[in-house]
Design brief:
mainly alpha, 5 helices, 100 residues
């Protein structure tokens, strides 16, 4: 996670950063539950995750999603692992009071 990326984008407004990351965590829970390669919307979900991840500085997750768009469903475990890692880092960051 590159928290500085989001902090810069939000002009240092810690409240905005916290709100955006909390929303991302909420979405991450829904994504994790829906990350089934057999689901008809799998590619759309991966694409959505890629953009949202890159928007908050979760570049490893964004890269994993970009690979999954190319490689297909076999890349789902890597996406899931990157999603869990990003969620863990975000949770720890928020618990510290957004002081990276």
């Amino acid at each position: 996670m590159d928290f500085g990326y989001l902090e810069d984008f939000a002009a240092g407004d810690r409240r905005v950063v916290g709100e955006v990351l909390a929303l991302f965590l909420e979405q991450a829970g829904a994504w994790s539950a829906s990350l089934d390669p057999a689901a008809p919307g799998w590619r759309d979900l991966i694409h959505t995750m890629k953009g949202a991840s890159r928007g908050v500085g979760a570049f490893r997750l964004g890269d994993a999603c970009a690979s999954a768009e190319t490689e297909g469903p076999s890349a789902t475990p890597a996406v899931r692992a990157a999603l869990e890692a990003a969620a863990g880092e975000i949770s720890a960051y928020l618990a510290r009071g957004q002081s990276a």
